[in-house]
Amino acid sequence: MSWLLPPHASSYAADIDWLYYLILIITGIAFLVVQIGLVWFIIKYRARPNGKALYTHGFAKAEWIWTSVTAVVVVVIGLLSAGVWDRIKGRDSIPPGAIPIGIHGKQFEWHISYPGADGQLGTGDDLSIRNQLHLPLNKPVVATLTSEDAIHSFFIPAFRIKQDAVPGMTIRVWFQPTDTGTFELACAELCGLGHYRMRAVVTVHAEAEYQRWLDERGRAAAASPTALLQR
Amino acid sequence: MASTAAVVHEPALEHAHADDRPFIRKYIFSTDHKIIGIQFLLMSLFFLLIGGMLAMVIRWQLGFPGRAMPGGGVLPETMAPGGIVLPEFYNSLVTMHGTFMVFFAIMPLLVGVFGNYLIPLKIGAPDMAFPRINMASFWIAVPAGLIMLAGFFVEGGHAAAGWTGYAPLSANPELTGVSLGQQLWCVSLIILGLSSIMGSFNYITTIINMRAPGMIWFRLPLSIWALFITAILVLLAMPILSGALIMLLFDQTLGTHFFLPAQGGQPLLWQHLFWFFGHPEVYILILPAMGMVSDIIANGSRKPIFGYTSMVLAIIAIGALGWGVWGHHMFMSGMNPTLGTGFMISTLLISVPSAIKTFNWMGTMWGGNIRFHVPMLHAVAFVSMFVIGGLSGVFMATTPVDIYIHDTYFIVAHLHYVLFGGSLFAIFAAVTFWYPKMFGRLMNPLWGKVHFWLTFIFFNAVFFPMHGLGAQGHMRRIYDPTEYEFLAPLQGVNRMITISAFLLFTAQIIFLVNFIAGWFKGAKAGPNPWQDNGLEWATPSPPPHGNFPVTPHVYRGPYEFSSPLAVDDDYLPQSRKLETDREPAVLPAGD
After folding, report:
1. Which residue, B27, B464, B500, B543, is most buried by CB atoms nearer than 10 A?
2. 3-state secondary structure B307-348
3. If we measure between CA atoms, which residue out of B438, B443, B435 comes closest to residue B517?
4. Which of A6, A15, A55 sits opposite B472 (nearest CB)?
């Protein structure tokens, strides 16, 4: 079983992966120090006949060393992380001109809406499709997450993005796909008996192809408004 | 008065020698803290077994989704028709596994059992400050457990919203199809909360007022320090949960809508209330374990604990910082992201006192003359496993990394390294260590070692690979991982984990048999089988009613192993008076 992360396909995924590996290395060193230390002490200081333990109540200097080293390391991890977090989820992090997409969780499916020709969500010409998220390559997308019933969680592992969709709240989250192909969108928050199959397919197209797909679907929807939601 | 009871010699003597209470007052409705501790032990071991059995069903479904479970035919149609687990039953399973393990197994094992059993004995008191309230706290916990069990047999099945009971899933029966089960879940936990509150103010009062002469604060064993801080956390945290549960129950039954957004309620309010209780709860589940492991490691190493004062300060720091980190459960919840950064920093800071404790345990073993009795094996395993659980916590504490691993098997691995690798190994250490004091007999050491090694190996075989599953993005609480293409390659690992889990469960039968057999057939222990310094070892095993024939006087701290003052032995009991020792003031410090 691998501690390595699977391939990623979004603009900020590399930052998250970098932090993950940094923490993996730091905690890996701490892990080795403690476990090797324990095994060494177990062997070296095992009871011997007439053996005598060292009578000491500890050294203040040692306490200061491991307290301050730990404190410095975690503060550095915290500072490095705060910037990345702010770029991904901060209130002002959404790139200007990001394409708006509506994601509405409902037991146990994702209703995804795309803006029509006006480029705006919530107007009459929106296109709505179940369990299919289509995205253009290398364009920032801002998803507006809402929920009909329980709390759902919007999770695309390949994009390293997760955000709860909470009923009564409107939460915006952005991402930018960097690879074409298909990926999976999962619900990551227990939402009822069908939680395990609340899955959607994410397709990332080259930009021209995305536009073609959107126009095609838009025309089909105009011809038969209910057809897409029914399939 | 309670505070003077500890120093009055005559009544204690009388109790010790003439115990003519009828059976029912002595063993059933007993006010003796030792009997109540043992009652809690039997109850929580029963629920530990129930929680473990639920875990086996969960693992079967994850390893072999959609296949009939061997022996699953005994389950009713509403749970597993033909032995195949239903998704709605699976959700009840994960909910109740967590609920039973946290509230009815680990928490009472640490706080109910050892809080009760150890506090009066280790501070030199004849009993708790409020013995009848103590009895009530146990007899309130029993119906709470029965109500929780009853939920499996009601229409609609048991609660299925996770042990964290997130609203609105838990608040609106239409979303799960569970109504009565979820209500019983609330009622049971409200009652159990009352039991915990009764226990905790009893512990606090007893520790403050009833310490034997000479038992000043900085001579208290670390187990008692940890239980003291834990009791404060319980007293302050449980009412928050009870309040939230009452609101949830009202949402379900009276048509209120605290957590229902359609009528203006706030789902996130539940999460804030739950985790404001829930994170101190995490420390309630680990601090007593840390305290008892400290006692056992000093005993096993035959050395004074390394850095006693910094150990005490670390316990207090963890207890205090624990109130300011609850938001780290909610990074993905829609909470203001700026708040997330604050919670990340406070959470990372908790690694500092945790690291202090770890290095001090290692410092205690360094230069020791280590005896590997069964409690010591479990205690060292605690340190080793707790470190893994603590280090994996850094990943989740870091907000950007948490975006990816939140709600995956990474967190499942982390919490089991802390609660099983940490708390449960400490419980095995503590049960085997104080068993001879409780029952006057020793558990079989050979079978104890066999149980330890099998548990240690299979525990790691079950939970270590889960980090990897989480790193691949495997979500938690999903009924059938094969629904997802990206999870399909991980099915082999899931099967391996399942088989290891069955072996882990089977190994616990050894412990169970050893526990029961030791009661009747174990070797006689004598008062002090581990050659320890604590006051409890200066009285017979099991101690008489009233604990000490004569109230002990305390002349030193609890960890004076290998002291140059101890001429013949490598230990020096707290109550042994040397020629150079002065008599302590008769009233304990603090009065």
Report:
1. B543
2. CHHHHHHHHHHHHHHHHHCHHHHCCCCCCCHHHHHHHHHHHH
3. B443
4. A6
pLDDT at A231: 41
Per the listing, tokens 């882990």 go with B504
Q: Check CB contact under 8 Å for B341 and A82.
A: yes
**Binary contact (A190, B162; C-beta < 8 A):** yes
**B381, closest residue in chain A (CA to CA):** A38
Cα separation of B99 and B93, whole Å?
A: 10
Contact B36, B202 (CB under 8 A): no
Amino acid at B219: R
Predicted confidence at residue A1, as pLDDT, reads: 57
Cβ separation A52–B479 shorter than 8 A: no
Phi/psi of residue B78, nearest 5 degrees? -75, -15
- Any B CB within 8 A of A208 CB: no
* CATH 1.10.287.90 residue window(s) in chain A: 13-89
Please compute the mean of the pLDDT values over residues B67-84 and round it to a whole number: 92
What pLDDT sits at residue B14?
Answer: 44
| pLDDT tens readout for residues B383-437 | 999 999 999 999 999 999 999 999 999 999 999 999 999 999 999 999 999 999 9
Instruction: Verify whether the Cβ–Cβ distance A90 to B338 is below 8 Å.
Output: yes
* Beta carbons of B303 and A171 less than 8 Å apart: no
CB contact under 8 A, B468 and A78: no
CA distances B481 to A198, B242, B264, B497, B498, Å, are 12, 35, 35, 14, 13
Q: How far, in Å, are A17, B331, B483 from residue A6 at the CA level?
A: 10, 22, 18
Can you give the pLDDT at residue A116?
84
The three-point CA angle B583-B586-B587 to 5° equals 140
Residues B433, B384 contacting (CB under 8 angstroms): no
Which residue of A94, A166, A199, A203 is the best one to mutate when testing the B interface, meaning the one whose CB has the most B CBs within 10 A? A166
Where do you find CATH 2.60.40.420 in chain A? 99-230
Q: Chain B within 8 Å of A167 (Cβ-Cβ)?
A: yes
CB-CB neighbors (< 8 A) of A56 in chain B: 303-304, 306, 367
CATH 1.10.630.10 fits B2-10+29-538, yes or no: no
When scoring A17, A193, A198 by the number of chain B Cβ atoms within 10 A, the one with the most, hence best to mutate, is A193
CA distance A163 to A151: 10
Return the residue of B nearest to A91 by Cα: B337
The continuous run of DSSP H or E covering A134 comes out as strand A132-136
What does chain A come to in residues?
A: 231
Tokens coding B493: 């690992």
Query: Helices B267-284 & B308-321, crossing angle to 10 degrees?
Result: 170
Question: Which positions 496-555 of B are in contact with A (Cβ < 8 Å)?
Answer: none
Measured between CA atoms, the residue of chain B closest to residue A26 is: B391
Give dist(CA B448, CA B378) in Å, integer. Answer: 10
Q: Which residues of chain A have pLDDT under 50?
A: 230-231
Question: How far is B390 from chain A, CA to nearest CA, in Å?
Answer: 9
Instruction: Give contacts of A 211-230 with B, CB under 8 A.
Output: none
Residues 6+ apart with CB under 8 A from B231: B111, B115, B199, B200, B201, B203, B204, B207
Among residues B298, B300, B427, B421, the alpha carbon closest in space to that of B360 is found at B298
Other residues' Cβ atoms within 10 Å of the Cβ of residue B22: 8
B299: closest chain A residue by CA: A53
Q: Any chain A CB within 8 A of the CB of B318? A: no
| Chain center to CA of B165 | 20
Tell whether domain A99-230 is in CATH 2.60.40.420.
Answer: yes
Decide if pLDDT at B121 tops 90: yes
